[in-house]
Design a protein that fits this description.
The chain is 62% helix and 0% strand. The chain folds into 2 domains: 58 residues, 434 Repressor (Amino-terminal Domain), CATH 1.10.260.40; 129 residues, no CATH class. The protein is mainly alpha-helical and 233 residues long. It contains 9 helices and no strands. Helix 2 crosses helix 4 and helix 7 packs parallel to helix 9. The chain is globular.
Length: 233
């Protein structure tokens, strides 16, 4: 399966995005450690340009069957291109939006105000840098691009509002509460940051990669106190 992906010159993230499956589901299938449901297999087969049932035959020791396509004429390709590109814009936005929602849910479950603030900044970075760059780089009519960007920014604002409302509820009873019973906020924040940085790779590489800006949020965990140095003179 990995050989087929490499043959198509696709990254695992690209296969995941095209198949609309969970990254872990595909990773386990490619590693041979888990058998996904039939619906997921069909989507992955389509992303790998295989005939339906190919994964099952492959795991049974048989051979996968590539999809054979008839080359289209230049005129037909030119006529069909705009529709495909327009579909690609909304397809891309759907994947990005689900990724942001997953990040919101994961961070709110941590119940750490510092982590929520850190994640909020990364969500803004994801929408403001990676997603916008992807949409602008697509070759689509201006009206389609503008509509996609408007939808993108609207959903970004919804995510920020959702985070703000939940943050107010979480910290209202005890604003100075520590994250007791769980990992330090600094570790949680670092985990969220690393996870959010990996998501854009699932959707390809932006034309002009930029480094997300780290929020100026200090962890509530106090560093160990070092002994003072003796004064000279």
């Amino acid at each position: 399966m990995k050989a087929r992906r490499l043959e198509l010159q696709k990254t695992p993230g690209e296969v995941v995005a095209e198949a609309e499956v969970d990254p872990k589901t595909y990773a386990r299938l490619e590693d041979g450690t888990r058998w996904p449901q039939e619906r997921s297999r069909l989507k992955i087969e389509a992303a790998l340009e295989w005939e339906p049932g190919s994964i099952g035959r492959l795991l049974d020791g048989g051979d996968a069957t590539p999809i054979t396509t008839v080359p289209s004429t230049p005129a037909a390709t030119q006529d069909a291109a705009p529709t495909g590109d327009e579909t690609g814009v909304w397809h891309l936005l759907a994947h990005m939006w689900r990724a942001a929602e997953d990040l919101v849910s994961a961070v709110l479950d941590a119940r750490s105000p510092t982590t929520v603030l850190l994640a909020a900044q990364h969500i803004v970075d994801l929408y403001g840098i990676y997603l916008t760059d992807h949409v602008i780089s697509l070759d689509v009519p201006a009206e389609v691009r503008d509509a996609a960007l408007a939808d993108l920014f609207r959903k970004r604002d919804q995510a920020r509002k959702k985070l703000g409302e939940r943050l107010a509820v979480e910290i209202a009873p005890s604003s100075g509460a520590q994250n007791e019973g769980g990992p330090p906020e600094e570790d949680l924040g670092r985990g969220v940051a690393q996870k959010s940085k990996k998501w854009p790779s699932q959707f390809g590489t932006p034309r002009t990669p930029r480094t997300p800006v780290k929020p100026d949020v200090k962890p509530s965990i106090k560093p160990s106190i070092k002994p003072r140095r003796a004064r000279e003179g």
